Amino acid sequence: VKVARELMVSIDAMGGDAGPSMVVSALVRSAQRHPSVKYILHGDETELGELLHKRRFKLGLHLGQRITVRHAPTRVAMNEKPSYALRRRRDSSMWRAIESVKTGEAEAVVSAGNTGALMAMSMYQLGLIDGITRPAIATVWPTQRGQAVVLDCGANIECDAEQLVDFAVMGEAFARAVLGLPRPRVGLLNVGSEELKGHDAVRGAAQILRSANLPMEFCGFIEGNHIAEGVVDVAVTDGFTGNITLKTVEGTAKLIAGYLKAALRRSFLSRLGAVLASGALMALKRKLDPRAAGGGLFLGLNGVVVKSHGGTDALGFAYAIDTAIDMALGGINKSIVADRAGVSPGMATP
Amino acid sequence: VKVARELMVSIDAMGGDAGPSMVVSALVRSAQRHPSVKYILHGDETELGELLHKRRFKLGLHLGQRITVRHAPTRVAMNEKPSYALRRRRDSSMWRAIESVKTGEAEAVVSAGNTGALMAMSMYQLGLIDGITRPAIATVWPTQRGQAVVLDCGANIECDAEQLVDFAVMGEAFARAVLGLPRPRVGLLNVGSEELKGHDAVRGAAQILRSANLPMEFCGFIEGNHIAEGVVDVAVTDGFTGNITLKTVEGTAKLIAGYLKAALRRSFLSRLGAVLASGALMALKRKLDPRAAGGGLFLGLNGVVVKSHGGTDALGFAYAIDTAIDMALGGINKSIVADRAGVSPGMATP
Prior knowledge:
Two copies of one chain form a homodimer.
Chain A: E1 7-12, H1 20-33, E2 37-43, H2 45-54, H3 56-65, E3 67-71, H4 82-88, H5 93-102, E4 108-111, H6 115-126, E5 136-143, E6 146-151, H7 161-177, E7 185-189, H8 200-211, E8 217-222, H9 225-229, E9 234-236, H10 239-265, H11 268-276, H12 278-288, E10 296-299, E11 304-307, H13 314-330, H14 332-340
Parallel strand pairs in A: 1-2, 1-4, 2-3, 4-11, 6-9, 7-8, 7-9
Antiparallel strand pairs in A: 5-6, 5-10, 10-11
Helix pairs in contact in A: 1-13, 4-6, 5-6, 7-8, 7-14
């Protein structure tokens, strides 16, 4: 059970393909759901003021008071190189949004902007949690039994055993603190479940995790199909494999949805059938909606950072804000710090 | 257009979970479709004789004459270690089935048995095509525009640039010789499409492929979603990423099919709708049927080797036999030899 304490969330209003109007709509949705959360919107002051003014009746007096607009003169473009953005965009809405977390004013930041720039700026400004050597991007997937956290989805192209162990700890901490699972089942993605399978990094990580003292059930190696089957709550892999797998699965889900649509349009009978089953088909659509996943969750940083999909709409961005709120209220980073100590007890700080 | 010349296919009748009865049923299906193909069935003589005898009316005189049974006293178990099978199972149906290709009696071998053992025995008996340093397992996936070859799906856990180039050549040769595409579009799976993305191996492979003289259109780096979108005909990656991606996608397809079934069963209206749309839903099911993909195609060996899924049925195994026939008739290995020379022209043999 999460306590609905006061919480400040910082938002990059200028990121994403859809722009600030989408972000403000998402903010209104989130604010209605979370009466004790306050928001700082970073971006073009005039534009944001107008967008909020338009929604003043929807917002009402109380809700309006929970939103602060903070001006940022520039924005990070979607195609800018992270290294360039890091040097040249310190007056951008993205930089400033992260800065609110750095100064302690806010606990979480949400952006639909350039992923690489958001990671680089977050690393630079917030730094890593003690004991974690690399941050990871986690995503939440639907499974036959509920959902699973998959990481790393693209922050680290090459990973050694220690980093995979860090990801396992961060994923497990997320599953406990945010998904509310007391003892998450954690597996390492591999080409087979036998102990001898895979390369040095996965085998080394398995060895460390088998002897670690962590509040999780380590399931050893899992294969790709085990994610959807719900065999684990946390699936750990390197960022190269995780990113390619995530995007391939997204592509496959779209392909199947397209096949289904085309098949149902084929004949009069099938069109009629689709109309009768439209309730069920809409439920399926919602279940497969990638927006409900809450975006890419940056783990391992001193602060909560959530990346909403660049092409998202207000619904998806609102889910991303909600996820950031859940992560902050769940105390994700305290969990990571506490659990990281369980891997090498000698290194635990009091 | 493929010439329907005479062809001998060797079959491991004892592999797979379902056993020889499934294999014989598959053989009958394939034999009816391919009047100029002959088959050698390796396995338990008595059992196979009885299975064929039961189907004697279906087979008829001519078809029966095209099938030879060859006795093999043992079989490779599904959970046996490849190294053990390689040393101890030289009297198995799998070993003997591959041997028929080695001796030149057959051009292709099909098995639903232990993948690792089939690869180890094929490597040992058939050897690699000149110029290819590692074999690869290719699979054919449905896409929005048709189909795509994805490799490596698990033969090689770690790959360097040269090996990825080999895979690109083999995939392209398969797409030309078997799928009939004159100039296949080939992409390297990566975490982004920009030139600087990824690790040394993919960047190195891209550099070699950009300057190679090959009958293909090299598309550079692609992301996971580009496979289903049909952006390429051939998607190349290492066996670790390929295997995990393949299995994750299979799991996702099953998950979505399960969601759809459950959603359509929810109410009277949706059940009625599903009945009316049953033709369309069956068409969708066929489209997503993993059996239609023809199994795992072992490329790079001196001979055609096709691995049908261990849990397959007669329909899936028959598709695997058909794929092996297509690969042999298409001259896949001649294409690989010819195209491999295009990568480093100085090494081309006259």
